[in-house]
Amino acid sequence: PQYVGEISPKKLRGFTNSTVAVFLTLGKLTGQVVGLREILGSEALWPWLLASSGLSALVQLVTLPVFPDSPSYLLIQKGNEEASRKAIRKLWGEGDHQAEIDDIMKEKVAMTSTKSLRVLEVIKERSLRWQLYILLTVMTTLQLCGINAV
């Protein structure tokens, strides 16, 4: 999901991040349906059910070398503008992508000017209090949603 969010053009980033969540949910639903006793949920078929998750991992492992590094990673972390342009052309096709590169450069400048906070500093920072409450609420409810409880 992080890679998909980073490689998508800025105008499609929200859509792709939402789509990832939908597909994760569909994957959980598929796992529950396939795990029904009538399909692969019997004791004899449990090894096949558990091994089926390895299929998607294998597909990801095989296709990983085909995809380039994230353009923002190449530009911000590595400082390699030419490799970033090459990755953008490979991912988004030919065209003028200078606006996207400028946005990544602005992000790089913003990252260098902000200070990284330690965990205790985040907890003590009053301006981050509501974001922290929301994050804790979402993560707690996710743990109790039923998927993890089963």
Quick one: how many beta strands? 0
What does the main sheet amount to? none
- For the residues shown, what is the average pLDDT? 85
| Distance from first to last alpha carbon | 24 Å
- Principal-axis shape equals flat
Total of helices = 8
Q: Helix and strand succession?
A: HHHHHHHH
Determine the structural class based on helices, strands and strand pairing.
mainly alpha
The helical percent reads 55-70%
Question: What proportion of the residues form beta strands (DSSP E)?
Answer: under 5%
CA radius of gyration is 21 Å
Poorly predicted runs: none
Written description of the protein model:
This protein has about 150 residues and is mostly helical. Among the domains are: about 75-115, no CATH class; about 115-150. The protein is built from 8 helices and no strands. The chain has helices at about 1-5, 15-35, 45-65, 70-75, 80-90, 100-115, 120-125, 130-145. Helix 4 (about 70-75) runs antiparallel to helix 5 and helix 4 packs across helix 6 (about 100-115).
